[in-house]
Design goal:
This protein has 739 residues and is of the alpha+beta class. It has 12 helices and 38 strands.
């Protein structure tokens, strides 16, 4: 159902004209009744004749002492309530036990049988960077992020966390991005000498643009960063005018580095200030690619030039693809450009053109569109490796180079997710393979033997493949007839009698699929008899761009209605019941869970809304809001307003309604979804619900956007809080409050 103006008027009057006393929920059973009440300070906006009242607009000034005090009191209360649950400490201890058995490895293969290893040891809180000779050799510590000295204004926000790392072409240096406490925009890039582990003294601030690209000669690199703003600049300017810059090692103040691509950097290329710009430079190619992207759209504009021309005055960039060409990625091999595009192929295809004179109109099709989505491409020395997505399951193709490419499918050891990592100077590929019931392992494909073998890079753990779990892939029919995939994992011993504690999760935005994954810590949930389900809703990428477009802007209601249909499936097939079912959404998935519980509160006993988008009418006022306009829409058009209003859970909360218990979670350093989004949602829900169930606001003051940039301790405690909260609400005797 689309927004109807008469409904909007009626809702506004009903919600905010009620006396304040009537809006306060009754104290929840077992919950201290002293939740701080946020005063109503309504602000009315007129959108195309529709008056929308916002009673907590003042929360958007997150530095206001009154707002900070309210959030702090709410968070203290939430942590106290969760800590008081009987089984919570025991569950946390089990989560830690499951999580601390083997090192967690993220490898980067390099020539010379070397690996850069991002590794977290059992009992450690953060990943550190190591150098390893051979897949099973000993590790030499290169970078401990906690020992990186950040600028004074970035200290005190939490533990330093590595965001990315990129080695120079000769393996002499590595550039490492480090951010404090989840504050990604404050990422600093430091350059470390690999042989000694010493810093060179080169530091680049606001380097929140992904990994840099090293240039030939290994004394310079190109990187993207946020602009430096004067004090008092509006928040919406923070992520504008992102450019790519050139830095020479030992060249002094990085703030004086010249811009080589992006907004007003190249006179012949017009770049919108809302767009991001970066440079891609393969160590096995003579070309540099300039990429322009909104940050949320799958398509980018690409330009190319010889890498030796980069940074020179009047350098001649040639256009490879415009936004109208629907190109999402390019891999380079010699003079060939392999292009991933959804032009006339909603599930994508791969085409090839000459880097010296790129022409998409006459490009050769290398991988034709089919029933599976072509989701990623990676160039190795021997071939192009192509990831396919069949619903929620990955397959991998190897496509040879040359005028007559041959295609073969790799024989993967596990049916699930398969992520490909290559180096264009090395033959073959690393494959990170994982399923719903098996922890990830790192395999290597050898093109000489055509075998996929376990590298041993990731040590085996005692909880890698529990024998008592089952998983199934089903599909169900949404109200409009679409077939929606649903993945369900559960203990083999459960009974299909509707009594099983069940957590269902989904995302549904930007065309991102929700691939199979396994986390040993989740066994603590399954050991409580818990079912874990993932609904592959529209707005994601499970079926390519057509699936994305079916849950974007005006079609966004399909996202939460698919989720509701999945909830009904679990109930109808006796996996669970409304009294034992919880839904969870994270980030853009906050739209999904927020609207699911406001549209069908009767289906859920509880919900978890983690760093969620809730007031979509105000998202454009935030630093990360303008880049998201292509995905969600803008209030600057009537159609955009109607779509954003419909997806704003905050504006669909109805007074005196029996809502589920809700745990809202935010990180105070979150640069992607401002913490006031969860604060406004929690205040409105506390004021409106009549169910007597708890509505809690949990804040990580040294955290950012959920698990991004967080520590392992934060992750463990968050899971213990979430699952204890759900089991409490499901009536589990072992998880009731002590007081």
């Amino acid at each position: 159902m689309r927004v109807r103006l008469s409904f909007s008027h009626a809702l506004t009057a009903l919600l905010f004209a009620a006396p304040m006393a009537d809006l306060q929920a009754q104290p929840a059973k077992g919950v201290p009744p002293s939740a701080p009440v946020a005063p109503l300070k309504p602000v009315t906006d007129d959108y195309y004749g529709v008056k929308v009242v916002d009673p907590y607009r003042y929360f958007e000034n997150i530095n206001d002492p009154e707002t900070r005090a309210w959030i702090k009191a709410q968070s203290d209360r939430a942590h106290a309530i969760l800590a008081d649950l009987h089984g919570r400490q025991r569950l946390l201890e089990r989560i830690r036990q499951l999580d601390q058995t083997v090192p967690q490895i993220r490898p980067r293969p390099l020539p010379g049988n070397l690996y850069l290893i991002s590794k977290r040891l059992p009992g450690e809180d953060i990943y550190k960077l190591y150098l390893r000779q051979g897949p099973t050799g000993s590790d030499k510590l290169l970078v401990d992020p906690e020992k990186i000295q950040l600028a004074s204004e970035n200290r005190g926000k939490g533990k330093n966390v590595i965001q990315y790392f990129e080695p120079s072409r000769d393996n002499r240096y590595v550039a490492v991005g480090v951010a404090p406490g989840g504050a990604e925009r404050d990422t600093e890039m430091h350059v470390v000498e690999i042989a000694t582990g010493r810093e060179t003294g080169d530091v680049i601030f606001r380097a929140w643009g992904g990994s840099p690209a090293w240039l030939p000669g290994n004394r310079s690199l190109v990187y993207s960063k946020l602009q430096k703003l004067p004090p008092g600049a509006p928040a919406t300017e923070i992520e504008q005018k992102v450019r790519a810059y050139l830095h020479v090692l030992g060249g002094g103040d990085s703030e004086k580095d010249p811009a080589v691509f992006g907004y007003q950097a190249v006179p012949s290329i017009t770049v919108d200030p809302k767009q991001f710009a970066g440079i891609i430079a393969s160590p096995a190619s003579d070309y540099a690619l300039g990429a322009i992207n909104s940050g949320v759209d799958p398509n980018s504009a690409f330009y190319i030039q010889p890498i030796t021309e980069l940074g020179k005055a009047n350098s001649a960039w040639r256009k490879v693809a415009d936004f109208s060409d629907d190109v999402s990625d390019i891999a380079v091999h010699g003079n060939d450009l392999y292009i991933l595009t959804f032009k006339n192929a909603k599930r994508y295809r791969v085409i090839r053109t000459d880097a010296r004179a790129p022409d998409l109109a006459s490009a050769e099709t290398i991988v034709a569109p089919g029933s599976a989505v072509v989701s990623a491409i990676a160039a190795a020395q021997d071939a192009l490796y192509v990831q396919l997505l069949d619903g929620a399951i990955n397959r991998v193709l190897r496509v040879t180079y040359g005028p007559h490419p041959q295609t073969e499918e790799l024989n993967l050891p596990v049916k699930g997710s398969a992520f490909v990592a290559t180096d264009p100077r090395l033959p073959g590929a690393l494959l990170v393979v994982i399923s719903w019931r098996q922890a990830y392992k790192i395999y290597a494909y050898d093109p000489r033997t055509k075998e996929v073998r376990d590298t041993g890079l990731q040590p085996a753990g005692p909880y890698d493949a529990p024998a008592n779990l089952e998983s199934v892939e089903v599909s169900l029919t949404a109200p409009d007839g679409a077939r929606v995939p649903l993945s369900i994992t559960y203990p083999k011993t459960i009974k299909m009698d509707g009594s099983n504690p069940t957590l269902m999760e989904a995302y549904g935005a930007y065309g991102f699929p929700f691939p199979p994954n396994f986390e040993p810590m989740r066994l603590a949930w399954h050991e409580q008899g818990g079912v874990y389900a993932v609904c592959h809703v529209r707005g994601g990428g499970e079926y390519g761009e057509e699936w994305h477009l079916a849950g974007k802007q005006a079609t966004k209601p399909n996202t939460w209605r698919d989720f509701i249909a999945c909830a009904q499936y679990l109930i109808e097939h006796k996996y669970t019941s409304p009294a034992h079912l919880a839904g969870q959404g994270t980030s853009a998935g906050g739209i999904l869970i927020g609207r699911a519980i406001t549209e069908r509160p009767d289906l859920f006993a509880a919900a978890i809304d983690q760093v969620g988008c809730s007031d979509m009418l105000r998202i454009e006022t935030t630093a990360n809001g303008l880049p998201n306009v292509p995905e969600f829409g803008s209030t600057k058009t009537k159609e955009g307003f109607q779509a954003l209003y419909e997806m704003s859970a905050y504006h669909h909360i109805r007074p005196r309604t029996s809502y589920p218990a809700v745990l809202y979670e935010t990180g105070f350093n979150d640069p992607r979804v401002d913490p006031w989004q969860m604060a406004k949602m929690a205040a409105a829900m506390q004021a409106a619900t009549s169910s007597g169930k708890p509505v809690l606001l949990r804040v990580e003051y040294e955290g950012g956007h959920g698990a991004i940039g967080g520590t392992e301790k934060q992750q463990q405690e968050r899971l213990a809080d979430e699952w204890s909260f759900l089991l409490w609400q499901f009536g589990a005797a072992a998880f009731q409050p002590k007081q």
